[in-house]
Amino acid sequence: MGARGELFTTQVFLDNRSYFFNVKENRTGDVFLQVVESKSRDGEDFDRHQIAVFADDLQKFLQGMDKTLSFIEKDRKARAKAAREKKAAKEAKYGKGGDKKVYYVKDGKNVPEEKRDDGIKRTGRVIHIVSKRTGEGKAESETVIERDESIAAKDESNAEKF
Question: For 27, 75, 93, 152, which has the most beta carbons within 10 A of its beta carbon?
Answer without folding.
Answer: 152
